[in-house]
Amino acid sequence: MKLPIAAAAVTLALFAAPAFAQDIAAGERSWNKCRACHQLGENAKNGVGPHLNGLFGRHTGEVEGYSYSNANKGANITWDEAVFAEYIKDPRAKIPGTKMVFAGIKNDKEITDLTAFLKQFGKDGKKM
């Protein structure tokens, strides 16, 4: 019995890319690498870096009161999971000229977990 082409394509797509279950607690531990420069939550303020409340869906260079580099202001990027994953692996490769001095997180699972943790916080800093 043959699989229909569509079913075969879906099966192939499922196995083509690794899938990671998100672990918010592990993401919170990973957040410790970020918190020296960034804040989250209802009382978050800009520090060395901008606060990260409501990061996903926001454009680069748009947090009020933070002094961004020209590179960030001109990057014209909207943060989503894929862009964030690419950026956090090597910020200076994704946005040359950024002020962010960070070696990056190379592990895909850790990035997925950190993303899940960050996505909990809305623009107002409240957990969604």
Automatic annotation (TrEMBL):
Residues 22-122 form the Cytochrome c domain. Gene3D superfamilies: Cytochrome c-like domain. Residues 1-21 form the signal peptide. InterPro entries: Cyt_c-like_dom, Cyt_c-like_dom_sf, Cyt_c_1A/1B. Keywords: Electron transport, Heme, Iron, Metal-binding, Signal, Transport. It comes from the Bacteria. One of its GO terms (molecular function) is metal ion binding. It holds the Pfam family Cytochrom_C. This is Cytochrome C. It comes from Bosea thiooxidans. The lineage of its organism: Bacteria, Pseudomonadati, Pseudomonadota, Alphaproteobacteria, Hyphomicrobiales.
